[in-house]
Structure formats: structure tokens, C-alpha cells
Automatic annotation (TrEMBL):
<dbReference type="Pfam" id="PF11297">
    <property type="entry name" value="DUF3098"/>
</dbReference>
<keyword id="KW-0812">Transmembrane</keyword>
<keyword id="KW-0472">Membrane</keyword>
<keyword id="KW-1133">Transmembrane helix</keyword>
<feature type="transmembrane region" description="Helical">
    <location>
        <begin position="20"/>
        <end position="39"/>
    </location>
</feature>
<protein>
    <recommendedName>
        <fullName>DUF3098 domain-containing protein</fullName>
    </recommendedName>
</protein>
<dbReference type="InterPro" id="IPR021448">
    <property type="entry name" value="DUF3098"/>
</dbReference>
<feature type="transmembrane region" description="Helical">
    <location>
        <begin position="59"/>
        <end position="76"/>
    </location>
</feature>
Length: 81
């Protein structure tokens, strides 16, 4: 009876490595969204060119996409036994 009960113990789907990679992906996504923030104008009649700078148009979306790719890798990576 004990042997049968021990075989039915559930294992976690992901290992520590997977969770660590997921955390890195979440951090990259969060940094990307933080970099996208701001650039607006306090006065709605005044246009602020700062909204079209390199950080908001190229860097931040690239970080978000890299973070999403890291998340997919973290889900698909098989833990070593």
C-alpha cells in the first residue's frame, strides 16, 4: 500500500530553473513598460516631440518582445532530471 501511495505523489510542472527564467522575463516586460511611460504634455494644446524618442519607439517595445520570448522559453524548457 505504501508503495502505491508514494507513486501517486504529484510533482510540480516547473522546476526552480523555469521559475527563475520566468521571473527574468517578467522583469524585462516590466522594464519595457516603464520605459514606455511618460512623454506626454501637461497642456493638451501643446505637442511634445519627446514622445517619439528612441527609448519609447525602439528600446521599450523591443524589451517587451524579448521578455515575451523569454517567457515562452521558460514554459517550453524541459528541466533536467
Amino acid at each position: 500500500m505504501k508503495e502505491k501511495n508514494q507513486n501517486n505523489q504529484s510533482e510540480f510542472l516547473f522546476k526552480k530553473k523555469n521559475y527563475l527564467i520566468m521571473l527574468i522575463g517578467i522583469l524585462l516586460i516590466a522594464i519595457g513598460f516603464i520605459l514606455m511611460a511618460g512623454g506626454g504634455s501637461d497642456d493638451p494644446t501643446v505637442f511634445n516631440e519627446e514622445i517619439y524618442n528612441f527609448r519609447r519607439i525602439r528600446l521599450a517595445p523591443t524589451l517587451v518582445l524579448i521578455g515575451l520570448a523569454v517567457e515562452i522559453y521558460a514554459i517550453m524548457a524541459k528541466p533536467k532530471k
